[in-house]
Amino acid sequence: MLNIAVIGAGRIGQVHARTIASHPGAALALIADPFGDAAEKLAAVHGARHTTDIDSVFTDGSIDAVVIGSPTPLHIPHLLAAAKAGKAVLCEKPIALDMKDVEAAREELDAVSTPVMFGFNRRFDPSFAALRAAVADGRIGDLESLLIISRDPAAPPIEYVKVSGGIFRDMTIHDFDMARFFLGDIVEVHAFGQNFDPGITQAGDFDAAVVTLRNADGVVATIINNRKCSAGYDQRLEAQGSTGTLNADNVRATTVRLSNGEATDAAEPYLDFFLQRYADAYRLELSAFINAVAEGRTPPTSIADAIEALHLAEAATESARTGRAVTL
């Protein structure tokens, strides 16, 4: 039985706490959050201990693993503290807001020997995982292009946008990892930022973007992002190959469709929030982490994956600002 502590009692922490508490191979031992009574309230739901002292998580000898859902600037410090204490780590993305922070800690990150996994949960979405497996099995021949569509139902608060690191670090980071999941290492990035929301423009960020990525074999991934989508949380994949095409469509609450005198095949809106759309992905991601640690296997995503995703985010930011492709 793996005793796990969760750092951060916000919405991601709540998701992970619920999954850990229901997993037969894990026990939710401790919730840590420095602000108010958030940790106490979440711990009470699951019968766990709570603390406002984050450092006590790392010195607690009963804790085997730590799930890090703290603010992004604390991801590296918390990851390193947990690893130095001999605890396995599942850390939310991104690894940092700036590659300078990664480089400053590079030696320590390279020296980490405990299992570390990063929260690129979309790799574990059943539809996306099945599509990736079909590509790997050669079901569409040689992969030629990948289309990733990721649109949010509504923009986050402007105050969040100001500290998010920008759309490419905050939102597209998942899509960069998905592109690497299919294409491997990327050699060129060309990004186009768009501004439709005056508030986000004033905050110095883009609220929509189109990014093209190319690997060394000439396979191209296109990412389409928007922070606002009237139809809901729009999440799709298309893989085009030499002998066929694979599509993963949006998930809806039901499969019911209506046809009448005004419309044909009218379906329900897309699910309206990422915690709904990716509920299975979060559950399967955490199960993969728990099973890997328990069985002594290397977790399926790594510090290197997190660094490469951030590297692509920074290249996309540079490209969108300059209007030029960035070669890696």
Describe this structure in words.
The chain is α/β, with parallel strands linked by helices and 328 residues long. It folds into two domains: 2-114, NAD(P)-binding Rossmann-like Domain (Rossmann fold); 123-280 and 308-327, Dihydrodipicolinate Reductase, domain 2, CATH 3.30.360. The protein has 14 helices and 15 strands. The strands form three sheets. Strands 12-11-7-10-9-8-15 form a seven-stranded mixed sheet. It has a six-stranded parallel sheet with strand order 3-2-1-4-5-6, sandwiched between helices. A two-stranded antiparallel ribbon has the order 13-14. α1 crosses α13 (279-295) and α10 crosses α14. The termini are far apart.
Task: Give a quick set of tags describing it.
2 domains; Rossmann fold; 7-stranded mixed beta sheet; 328 residues
Helix and strand topology:
Blueprint (H helix, E strand, L loop, with lengths): L1 E6 L3 H12 L3 E7 L5 H9 L2 E3 L3 H5 L5 E4 L6 H10 L3 E4 L7 H6 L1 H5 L5 E3 L7 H11 L6 E9 L6 H6 L3 H4 L2 H11 L2 E9 L3 H5 L5 E8 L4 E7 L7 E8 L3 E4 L8 E2 L7 E2 L6 H4 L1 H17 L7 H20 L3 E2 L1
Parallel strand pairs: 1-2, 1-4, 2-3, 4-5, 5-6, 7-10
Antiparallel strand pairs: 7-11, 8-9, 8-15, 9-10, 11-12, 13-14
Helix pairs in contact: 1-13, 10-14
